[in-house]
Design brief:
CATH superfamily of the largest domain: Chloramphenicol acetyltransferase-like domain
Helix content: 10-25%
Number of helices: 6
Shape: elongated
Distance between the termini: 42 Å
Radius of gyration: 24 Å
Order of helices and strands: EEEEEEEEHHHEHHEEEEEEH
Strand content: 15-25%
Number of domains: 3
Number of strands: 15
Oligomer: single chain
Largest sheet: 7 strands, mixed
Length: about 350
């Protein structure tokens, strides 16, 4: 029995997926939940399980290739493949079903030689697709938590895809300039805003009553800030920290790439691109913090309003980007359905 592994659709409007890396090789035994590959979409990088117990009989794509959704890229069989025999395509065991599209992967434009047969493809080549950085979700998370730019590995000529073990190399590369890069002070510019709280409160109640999803104000603020920050400043990986009224601090990596119900942080003291301080209920309207190591967005709740105060300097973003960040964030807080569009 042959199980065909296809490029999955990990997003609603996804036509292709970028194969970041294979986690198994031909001949390896796999379980249903074992991670077979890492796939990157325009939203995130995901670990994809094998979906069937057995043995990897064939890998039909290379890391670094954009592959159409639904295309067969691997085969899993019940018995170990004969690795000593010449490689031949393995036929599905149900010929009466409509055939799935199986295409040979096109060679890069500059390549002169044809792409070898699938079974002979080297699993670790090629390394990147255009300007995209190939890295595992764990590597991206560790880099963001440490306030490091993972693209520095590419600039240093280190081969992709990057994994958690490469973050130590990234720390070594960043060590000479890290203390300066993460110190944005003194923070001297301020933007304040007041937003009606009614729509957000109704949104939280609706998500709980109709969807059974419990959302906290802090997680919503982090997620909406992530969307606004990426639109304002761009970047391959974003890190935002949240400090609650109790003083606890959580770091969130790329919070805009997850569903609201899946936004989660980890306890960390690492500097981030933006820190949100949840002041709690009261009458505070403007909070300026000048000794922080990163821009600070303080949010307090009045009876019917949310009061936002952003303190920043020229780094990591300037006045125009800060204004765009606050504009995007306040629009989403005032009308949360914008974030779901």
């Amino acid at each position: 029995m042959v199980h065909e592994v296809i490029m999955p659709a990990l997003g609603m409007a996804q036509d292709t997926g970028l194969l970041v890396s294979w986690q198994k090789s031909v001949g390896d035994a796999v379980g249903v939940e074992d991670v077979l590959m890492e796939v990157e979409t325009d939203k995130s990088t995901m670990e994809v399980p094998a979906g069937r117990a057995g043995y990897v009989a064939e890998l039909r794509a290379q890391a670094g290739q954009d592959i159409p959704v639904g295309q067969v890229i691997a085969l899993i069989t019940a018995q170990p493949p004969d690795l000593s025999a010449p490689s031949e395509p393995i036929q599905p065991t149900q010929p009466d079903e409509p055939a799935k599209v199986v295409q040979s992967m096109p060679a890069p434009e500059k390549a002169q030689a044809p792409v070898p047969p699938p079974a002979t493809l080297p699993i670790d080549a090629p390394q990147s697709q255009g300007s995209r950085i190939l890295a595992s979700p764990k590597a991206r998370r560790l880099a963001a938590e440490a306030g490091l730019d993972i693209s520095a590995l590419q600039q240093a000529g280190l081969p992709q895809p990057y994994h958690a073990a490469d973050i130590e190399k990234l720390r070594d590369l960043a060590a000479p300039a890290q203390s300066h890069a993460l110190n944005y002070g003194p923070l001297s510019s301020h933007i304040t805003a007041t937003v009606p709280a009614g729509a957000l409160d109704a949104f939280i109640v609706r998500m709980r009553d109709e969807g059974g999803i419990e959302l906290t104000f802090g997680d919503i603020a982090v997620a909406f800030s992530g969307v606004a920050l990426r639109q304002a400043v761009g970047g391959d990986a974003l890190s935002i920290s949240l400090r609650g009224p109790d003083g606890g601090r959580q770091v969130y990596t790329d919070p805009d790439k997850y569903r609201l119900s899946h936004v989660a942080g980890v306890a960390s003291d690492a500097p981030t691109q933006l820190e949100i301080r949840e002041v709690g209920s009261g009458y505070l309207t403007t909070i300026a913090i000048g000794d922080a190591k990163q821009p600070v967005l303080a949010i307090s709740r009045g009876p019917d309003t949310m009061n936002l105060s952003l303190t920043f300097s020229d780094a990591p973003f300037g006045a125009d980007q800060a204004i765009e960040l606050m504009r995007g964030l306040t629009q989403r807080l005032a009308d949360p359905l914008l974030a779901l569009a």
